[in-house]
TrEMBL record:
This is Lipoprotein.
Amino acid sequence: MRTLMLTGSLLLLTGCAGFGLPRHDPAQAWIDLDSQQEDTALQALEVDDKTATDKRYFEVHPGSHELTVRYQFPVQPTNIGPDAEPLWRDCLLNVKFKDFNAGQRYQLQAGNIGFRPWAKLYDQQRKVIGQGTPAGCQST
């Protein structure tokens, strides 16, 4: 049984490895997602209250948009108590920006300070052009 599970997992990983990001449409703005730590997850959820087509990035028409992301991260015991285990948080953040430009690449980064998540939107020159606002968190 273990051999079957291991083989299935390896085949799944091999199949996923060949599936990269699509080409960037020059008529739209592209927003890459980046979490600050290795053991976290950042996913695209919605653009203007509509489900995102891919959880790995956003691609939007020029203009004003509100992006919603899910950020999952562990709160370390140093922020909880000396005998505590890491506590996982599952948070939603909204980022509004009024001037996405066609052909431009942006980067949305997320991180946390203790229990509080944060998100920042950067332009191609690494200038902060937007900040995320928390839209709810839960512990898992």
